[in-house]
Amino acid sequence: MLEVLGVYGIDEYVTIDLGELRGFDYHTGVIFQGFLTGFGRAVCSGGRYDGLTARYGFPAPATGFAFNLFNLLFALDRALDGRGEDSIDVLLFCPAEDKAPAQRLAAALRSQGYSVARDIIVRDRQASLDYARRMHFRYLLIMNETNDGLTLLHLADGRETTPCLGAVLNGECRL
To answer: How far, in Å, CA of 6 to CA of 160, rounded?
Structure first.
């Protein structure tokens, strides 16, 4: 689990507390809570509960979580002011099996101020393009099958460019 968090660059923000007990008798494994810096209440919580659904006639292993919207909105109140936007900048499409390079690219673009979503649903290029248009993205950024080349589709005018991956990662190439 921690290796996956490392791919996303958030492992340094996770604390493992083996003494955490919340008294929910239906949990059968890991339980967790999510906190935001400077806010002393959990904004999300959850865990593993393999036997819970059997109580309702459908035995199935499960893991789940819930956000406490009141705490989340209270904690983010000032950060959300003026953040509403009509569109998202980039939908990142990566057909390769290894998604770690796509996550690094998404993180680099976000650090440069772009809003980026990764297309995690398995679909072809045309289906991702259709989705990007329906969801009002500005660009569809396509990593090639070997994760070493890019194609940028400008959705407003249909232009297609091929920015250098290294230049995009280093912030030397604006979309």
So the answer is: 33
The H or E element spanning position 45 is: strand 39-48
As a whole number of angstroms, the distance between CA 97 and CA 147 comes to 10
Cα–Cα distance, 90 to 62 (Å, whole number): 33
Indicate the SS3 state at residue 148.
Answer: coil
What residues does 154 pair with on adjacent strands? 139
Q: What is the DSSP string of 92-121?
A: EE--SS--HHHHHHHHHHHHTT--EEEE-S
Task: Report the chain's C-alpha Rg in angstroms.
Answer: 20
Alpha-carbon separation of residue 19 from 30, 31, 42 (angstroms): 11, 11, 17
**Six-digit token string for 144:** 């090639």
The closest alpha carbon to 149, from 132, 130, 131, 168, belongs to 168
pLDDT per residue as tens digits for the range 77-112: 766 665 555 568 999 999 888 888 999 999 999 999
- Does pLDDT of 66 surpass 90? yes
pTM: predicted TM-score of the whole model, two decimal places? 0.58
Pairing outcome for strands 137-143 and 116-119: unpaired
